[in-house]
Amino acid sequence: MFVSAKLKLIVSIVFLSCFILSPAYAKMMSISGEKVQLRSGPGTKYSSKWQYGDGFPLKVITRKGNWVKVKDFENDTGWVFNKLLTRKPHMIVKANKGKKKRVNIRSGPGTKYKPVGRAYYGVVFETLAQEKGWAKVKHESGLTGWIKRSLLWGY
Q: How many domains does the structure of the chain reveal?
């Protein structure tokens, strides 16, 4: 009887782990291209809700054929054609919405390092590394540095 109860517990844990930790639920992707349409449904016949630029990070919700339902950092959802997405990691500044305040981009992973630049809300960066609550990022301009991870959204 003990073995049977233990086996049921193990099977339950494995099942829940597969369901909760499934890559489809936590998968992140980024836009590959310029002026990529976020559509209201899975096809070109659906209206465009937003337009994203290269590297814009998105969270995958589900798939339907060649279309991927995604969510952005502002919780807007819609559909993007699969071939316009990449697994190359990117992040976007989520701090200071509606403010003129910028976040510091530092020369190293910590506040003791000097700022090498600043970025406004909504600026997209390629993710190079992550370390101790900081992300090493690169802007399309070539500027490379570290931003506190809590100020960013993406992967």
A: 2
